[in-house]
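User: Fold this; C-alpha coordinates only.

Assistant: Input:
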Amino acid sequence: MRGRPGRFARGRGRWGRRLGLGLGLGAVMAAALGGGADAAVQPSAAAPGPGYSCRDTKIGAAGGRTFALTTVLAATRVTFQGSLTRTPGLPMATSGSLTVSTGRSRWRLHPITFVNGAGVLPNTGADQVCALRFGREPHPEVLLQPYTGGAHCCVLPFLYTYSARAASYRLSARATLTEGGQPAGPMPPYDPNGGLGPRLEQGHLVLATDDGRFPYQFACFACSAAPVLLLGDTGGRFVDITRSFPKAVAGDARRLWSAVHQDLAHHTEVLGVVPAWVADECRLGHAAAAFAAVGRLQRAGDFSARLGPGFDGTGSAYVANLRRFLLRTGYCR
Protein backbone atom coordinates (compact mmCIF):
# COMPACT_ATOMS: atom_id res chain seq x y z
CA MET A 1 0.00 0.00 0.00
CA ARG A 2 1.77 3.20 -0.34
CA GLY A 3 5.09 1.39 -0.49
CA ARG A 4 2.37 -1.24 -0.78
CA PRO A 5 -0.06 -3.25 -2.81
CA GLY A 6 -0.12 -1.72 -6.13
CA ARG A 7 1.17 1.71 -6.88
CA PHE A 8 1.05 3.12 -10.09
CA ALA A 9 1.47 3.53 -13.83
CA ARG A 10 2.81 6.84 -15.00
CA GLY A 11 6.12 6.47 -13.24
CA ARG A 12 5.85 9.94 -11.70
CA GLY A 13 5.91 9.82 -7.93
CA ARG A 14 3.14 8.09 -6.03
CA TRP A 15 0.57 7.50 -8.77
CA GLY A 16 3.09 5.74 -10.99
CA ARG A 17 2.23 2.74 -8.78
CA ARG A 18 -1.43 2.51 -9.81
CA LEU A 19 -1.09 -0.60 -11.95
CA GLY A 20 1.47 -2.29 -9.72
CA LEU A 21 -0.85 -5.06 -8.59
CA GLY A 22 -2.20 -5.86 -12.03
CA LEU A 23 1.21 -5.82 -13.67
CA GLY A 24 2.64 -8.11 -11.01
CA LEU A 25 0.00 -10.85 -11.09
CA GLY A 26 2.07 -13.22 -13.18
CA ALA A 27 4.90 -12.99 -10.68
CA VAL A 28 2.44 -13.49 -7.84
CA MET A 29 1.07 -16.71 -9.33
CA ALA A 30 4.55 -18.04 -10.02
CA ALA A 31 5.60 -17.32 -6.46
CA ALA A 32 2.43 -18.89 -5.07
CA LEU A 33 3.06 -22.12 -6.93
CA GLY A 34 6.77 -22.24 -6.34
CA GLY A 35 7.14 -20.81 -2.84
CA GLY A 36 8.41 -17.40 -1.84
CA ALA A 37 10.40 -15.41 0.67
CA ASP A 38 9.40 -12.97 3.34
CA ALA A 39 9.21 -9.31 2.41
CA ALA A 40 11.29 -6.90 4.42
CA VAL A 41 9.90 -5.72 7.74
CA GLN A 42 9.03 -2.03 7.63
CA PRO A 43 10.64 0.39 10.11
CA SER A 44 9.14 0.25 13.55
CA ALA A 45 9.59 1.89 16.89
CA ALA A 46 9.67 0.20 20.25
CA ALA A 47 6.58 0.54 22.41
CA PRO A 48 5.08 2.81 23.52
CA GLY A 49 6.07 5.27 20.78
CA PRO A 50 4.51 5.35 17.32
CA GLY A 51 5.67 2.59 15.00
CA TYR A 52 4.60 -0.20 12.69
CA SER A 53 5.67 -3.47 11.16
CA CYS A 54 4.37 -5.20 8.02
CA ARG A 55 5.15 -8.53 6.36
CA ASP A 56 4.29 -10.22 3.13
CA THR A 57 3.16 -13.84 2.98
CA LYS A 58 5.33 -16.90 3.38
CA ILE A 59 4.14 -20.11 1.72
CA GLY A 60 3.77 -22.89 4.28
CA ALA A 61 2.99 -26.58 4.27
CA ALA A 62 0.58 -28.79 2.28
CA GLY A 63 2.31 -28.39 -1.05
CA GLY A 64 2.12 -24.61 -0.97
CA ARG A 65 -1.67 -24.56 -0.46
CA THR A 66 -1.53 -23.10 3.04
CA PHE A 67 0.46 -20.15 4.23
CA ALA A 68 0.97 -17.86 7.17
CA LEU A 69 1.65 -14.15 7.13
CA THR A 70 3.32 -12.88 10.32
CA THR A 71 4.54 -9.50 11.49
CA VAL A 72 6.20 -8.60 14.79
CA LEU A 73 6.16 -5.20 16.51
CA ALA A 74 8.09 -5.06 19.78
CA ALA A 75 6.57 -7.87 21.89
CA THR A 76 3.46 -8.32 19.76
CA ARG A 77 3.18 -10.98 17.05
CA VAL A 78 0.34 -10.90 14.51
CA THR A 79 -0.33 -13.87 12.23
CA PHE A 80 -2.87 -14.42 9.48
CA GLN A 81 -3.34 -18.06 8.43
CA GLY A 82 -5.20 -19.11 5.31
CA SER A 83 -5.44 -21.62 2.49
CA LEU A 84 -5.29 -20.87 -1.21
CA THR A 85 -8.57 -21.30 -3.05
CA ARG A 86 -8.76 -24.07 -5.65
CA THR A 87 -10.82 -22.03 -8.08
CA PRO A 88 -9.22 -20.98 -11.38
CA GLY A 89 -7.51 -17.62 -11.46
CA LEU A 90 -5.41 -15.72 -8.96
CA PRO A 91 -4.50 -17.90 -5.94
CA MET A 92 -5.62 -16.23 -2.71
CA ALA A 93 -7.10 -16.98 0.69
CA THR A 94 -10.69 -15.77 0.76
CA SER A 95 -10.98 -16.61 4.47
CA GLY A 96 -8.67 -17.34 7.35
CA SER A 97 -7.88 -16.72 11.01
CA LEU A 98 -6.04 -13.91 12.74
CA THR A 99 -3.97 -14.43 15.89
CA VAL A 100 -2.45 -11.71 18.08
CA SER A 101 -0.08 -12.57 20.93
CA THR A 102 1.83 -10.47 23.43
CA GLY A 103 3.83 -12.21 26.13
CA ARG A 104 1.51 -14.74 27.76
CA SER A 105 -1.63 -13.21 26.26
CA ARG A 106 -3.02 -14.65 23.03
CA TRP A 107 -6.16 -13.74 21.11
CA ARG A 108 -7.52 -15.72 18.17
CA LEU A 109 -10.04 -14.01 15.91
CA HIS A 110 -11.80 -16.46 13.62
CA PRO A 111 -13.16 -17.03 11.17
CA ILE A 112 -12.54 -14.09 8.85
CA THR A 113 -14.40 -14.32 5.54
CA PHE A 114 -13.84 -11.58 2.98
CA VAL A 115 -16.51 -10.22 0.65
CA ASN A 116 -16.52 -8.87 -2.91
CA GLY A 117 -14.16 -11.65 -4.02
CA ALA A 118 -11.32 -10.30 -1.88
CA GLY A 119 -8.53 -12.40 -0.45
CA VAL A 120 -5.03 -12.35 0.95
CA LEU A 121 -2.48 -13.08 -1.77
CA PRO A 122 0.85 -14.83 -1.41
CA ASN A 123 3.94 -12.79 -2.21
CA THR A 124 2.48 -9.59 -3.63
CA GLY A 125 5.05 -7.34 -2.04
CA ALA A 126 2.13 -5.64 -0.31
CA ASP A 127 1.48 -4.53 3.24
CA GLN A 128 -1.32 -7.02 3.71
CA VAL A 129 -0.87 -7.48 7.47
CA CYS A 130 0.52 -4.75 9.69
CA ALA A 131 0.83 -4.10 13.41
CA LEU A 132 0.29 -0.40 14.13
CA ARG A 133 1.12 1.57 17.24
CA PHE A 134 -0.21 5.11 17.08
CA GLY A 135 1.24 5.83 20.52
CA ARG A 136 -1.81 5.65 22.77
CA GLU A 137 -3.15 2.10 22.72
CA PRO A 138 -2.16 -0.57 25.30
CA HIS A 139 -1.85 -3.10 22.47
CA PRO A 140 -1.03 -2.38 18.79
CA GLU A 141 -3.83 -2.22 16.28
CA VAL A 142 -3.91 -4.66 13.38
CA LEU A 143 -4.38 -3.69 9.73
CA LEU A 144 -5.44 -6.45 7.35
CA GLN A 145 -5.72 -5.60 3.65
CA PRO A 146 -7.20 -8.27 1.35
CA TYR A 147 -7.31 -7.63 -2.39
CA THR A 148 -9.98 -8.43 -4.98
CA GLY A 149 -7.71 -8.83 -8.01
CA GLY A 150 -7.47 -6.78 -11.19
CA ALA A 151 -5.27 -3.89 -12.24
CA HIS A 152 -7.42 -1.08 -10.86
CA CYS A 153 -9.27 -2.49 -7.87
CA CYS A 154 -9.54 -3.14 -4.96
CA VAL A 155 -7.84 -3.25 -1.56
CA LEU A 156 -10.33 -3.43 1.33
CA PRO A 157 -8.68 -2.51 4.66
CA PHE A 158 -9.83 -4.05 7.95
CA LEU A 159 -8.78 -2.43 11.25
CA TYR A 160 -8.74 -4.42 14.50
CA THR A 161 -8.31 -2.73 17.88
CA TYR A 162 -7.94 -4.05 21.39
CA SER A 163 -11.05 -3.64 23.54
CA ALA A 164 -10.30 -3.38 27.25
CA ARG A 165 -13.96 -4.07 28.03
CA ALA A 166 -13.93 -7.33 26.07
CA ALA A 167 -10.28 -8.05 26.93
CA SER A 168 -9.78 -9.01 23.28
CA TYR A 169 -9.43 -7.65 19.77
CA ARG A 170 -12.47 -6.55 17.76
CA LEU A 171 -13.10 -5.44 14.19
CA SER A 172 -13.43 -1.66 14.63
CA ALA A 173 -13.43 -0.40 11.02
CA ARG A 174 -13.55 -1.81 7.52
CA ALA A 175 -13.80 -0.49 3.99
CA THR A 176 -16.79 -1.09 1.77
CA LEU A 177 -17.15 -0.08 -1.85
CA THR A 178 -19.89 1.17 -4.12
CA GLU A 179 -20.74 -0.74 -7.30
CA GLY A 180 -18.42 1.69 -9.08
CA GLY A 181 -15.50 0.64 -6.87
CA GLN A 182 -15.43 3.79 -4.73
CA PRO A 183 -15.11 3.84 -0.92
CA ALA A 184 -18.52 3.99 0.77
CA GLY A 185 -19.92 4.69 4.22
CA PRO A 186 -17.77 6.34 6.91
CA MET A 187 -14.48 5.31 5.31
CA PRO A 188 -12.44 8.31 4.04
CA PRO A 189 -12.04 8.30 0.24
CA TYR A 190 -8.83 6.28 0.13
CA ASP A 191 -7.39 4.89 -3.11
CA PRO A 192 -8.84 1.35 -3.38
CA ASN A 193 -6.20 0.43 -5.94
CA GLY A 194 -3.35 0.91 -3.50
CA GLY A 195 -4.81 0.62 -0.04
CA LEU A 196 -3.14 2.14 3.01
CA GLY A 197 0.61 2.43 3.57
CA PRO A 198 1.89 2.94 7.11
CA ARG A 199 4.66 5.49 7.49
CA LEU A 200 6.06 7.87 10.09
CA GLU A 201 5.34 11.51 9.31
CA GLN A 202 7.00 14.06 11.61
CA GLY A 203 7.13 11.47 14.36
CA HIS A 204 3.49 10.43 13.97
CA LEU A 205 2.22 7.17 12.51
CA VAL A 206 -0.05 7.79 9.51
CA LEU A 207 -1.62 5.60 6.85
CA ALA A 208 -0.73 7.11 3.49
CA THR A 209 -2.93 6.80 0.43
CA ASP A 210 -4.41 8.97 -2.34
CA ASP A 211 -7.91 10.36 -2.79
CA GLY A 212 -9.67 7.63 -4.77
CA ARG A 213 -12.25 10.05 -6.21
CA PHE A 214 -9.80 11.60 -8.70
CA PRO A 215 -8.85 8.78 -11.13
CA TYR A 216 -11.26 8.63 -14.08
CA GLN A 217 -12.88 11.92 -13.08
CA PHE A 218 -10.99 14.09 -15.58
CA ALA A 219 -8.86 11.63 -17.58
CA CYS A 220 -8.05 7.95 -18.02
CA PHE A 221 -6.89 5.97 -15.01
CA ALA A 222 -3.22 5.86 -15.98
CA CYS A 223 -3.40 9.53 -17.01
CA SER A 224 -4.67 10.64 -13.61
CA ALA A 225 -3.05 11.77 -10.39
CA ALA A 226 -4.65 12.17 -6.98
CA PRO A 227 -3.77 14.33 -3.98
CA VAL A 228 -2.16 12.75 -0.97
CA LEU A 229 -4.49 11.53 1.78
CA LEU A 230 -3.13 10.76 5.26
CA LEU A 231 -5.28 8.79 7.68
CA GLY A 232 -4.94 8.47 11.41
CA ASP A 233 -6.84 6.62 14.07
CA THR A 234 -9.37 7.86 16.60
CA GLY A 235 -10.87 5.18 18.78
CA GLY A 236 -10.52 2.49 16.14
CA ARG A 237 -11.75 4.58 13.20
CA PHE A 238 -9.95 5.75 10.07
CA VAL A 239 -9.82 9.56 10.19
CA ASP A 240 -8.57 12.05 7.58
CA ILE A 241 -5.72 14.01 9.23
CA THR A 242 -4.05 15.32 6.05
CA ARG A 243 -4.42 19.00 6.97
CA SER A 244 -2.33 18.38 10.09
CA PHE A 245 0.71 17.73 7.87
CA PRO A 246 1.12 20.76 5.56
CA LYS A 247 4.73 19.83 4.80
CA ALA A 248 3.61 16.52 3.30
CA VAL A 249 0.90 18.29 1.29
CA ALA A 250 3.37 20.92 0.07
CA GLY A 251 5.80 18.21 -1.02
CA ASP A 252 3.01 16.45 -2.89
CA ALA A 253 2.02 19.72 -4.58
CA ARG A 254 5.60 20.29 -5.75
CA ARG A 255 5.79 16.82 -7.29
CA LEU A 256 2.46 17.31 -9.04
CA TRP A 257 3.39 20.74 -10.40
CA SER A 258 6.62 19.25 -11.74
CA ALA A 259 4.53 16.55 -13.43
CA VAL A 260 2.32 19.22 -15.03
CA HIS A 261 5.39 20.91 -16.52
CA GLN A 262 6.73 17.55 -17.67
CA ASP A 263 3.49 16.86 -19.53
CA LEU A 264 3.47 20.31 -21.09
CA ALA A 265 7.07 19.90 -22.23
CA HIS A 266 6.14 16.64 -23.97
CA HIS A 267 2.87 18.06 -25.35
CA THR A 268 0.77 15.47 -23.55
CA GLU A 269 -2.45 16.07 -21.68
CA VAL A 270 -2.48 17.57 -18.20
CA LEU A 271 -6.22 17.20 -17.61
CA GLY A 272 -5.78 14.34 -15.14
CA VAL A 273 -2.86 15.86 -13.20
CA VAL A 274 -3.88 19.49 -12.70
CA PRO A 275 -6.89 18.69 -10.44
CA ALA A 276 -4.70 16.89 -7.90
CA TRP A 277 -2.27 19.82 -7.81
CA VAL A 278 -5.07 22.36 -7.33
CA ALA A 279 -6.53 20.20 -4.54
CA ASP A 280 -3.20 20.23 -2.68
CA GLU A 281 -2.86 23.98 -3.14
CA CYS A 282 -6.39 24.54 -1.83
CA ARG A 283 -5.55 22.51 1.26
CA LEU A 284 -2.58 24.83 1.79
CA GLY A 285 -4.79 27.92 1.50
CA HIS A 286 -3.53 28.87 -1.99
CA ALA A 287 -6.79 28.46 -3.91
CA ALA A 288 -6.72 31.92 -5.56
CA ALA A 289 -3.15 31.52 -6.82
CA ALA A 290 -3.84 27.97 -8.01
CA PHE A 291 -6.90 28.96 -10.04
CA ALA A 292 -4.98 31.93 -11.46
CA ALA A 293 -2.43 29.42 -12.77
CA VAL A 294 -5.28 27.27 -14.11
CA GLY A 295 -6.59 30.34 -15.96
CA ARG A 296 -3.20 30.91 -17.57
CA LEU A 297 -3.04 27.29 -18.72
CA GLN A 298 -6.53 27.56 -20.19
CA ARG A 299 -5.68 30.75 -22.11
CA ALA A 300 -2.55 29.06 -23.45
CA GLY A 301 -4.71 26.26 -24.88
CA ASP A 302 -3.32 23.57 -22.57
CA PHE A 303 -6.80 22.23 -21.77
CA SER A 304 -7.86 21.87 -25.38
CA ALA A 305 -9.13 18.64 -26.93
CA ARG A 306 -5.99 18.36 -29.05
CA LEU A 307 -4.06 17.31 -25.93
CA GLY A 308 -6.63 14.84 -24.68
CA PRO A 309 -10.32 13.97 -24.90
CA GLY A 310 -11.15 15.01 -21.35
CA PHE A 311 -13.55 12.92 -19.25
CA ASP A 312 -15.18 16.03 -17.81
CA GLY A 313 -14.90 18.58 -20.59
CA THR A 314 -12.07 20.58 -22.10
CA GLY A 315 -11.26 24.29 -22.20
CA SER A 316 -13.49 26.56 -20.14
CA ALA A 317 -15.94 23.72 -19.40
CA TYR A 318 -13.09 21.75 -17.84
CA VAL A 319 -12.18 24.66 -15.56
CA ALA A 320 -15.81 25.16 -14.47
CA ASN A 321 -16.23 21.45 -13.76
CA LEU A 322 -12.93 21.38 -11.88
CA ARG A 323 -14.14 24.18 -9.59
CA ARG A 324 -17.40 22.38 -8.90
CA PHE A 325 -15.66 19.08 -8.21
CA LEU A 326 -13.19 20.60 -5.74
CA LEU A 327 -15.98 22.46 -3.97
CA ARG A 328 -18.08 19.31 -3.73
CA THR A 329 -15.18 17.25 -2.37
CA GLY A 330 -14.28 19.91 0.20
CA TYR A 331 -10.86 20.89 -1.08
CA CYS A 332 -11.61 24.45 -2.21
CA ARG A 333 -14.07 26.65 -0.36
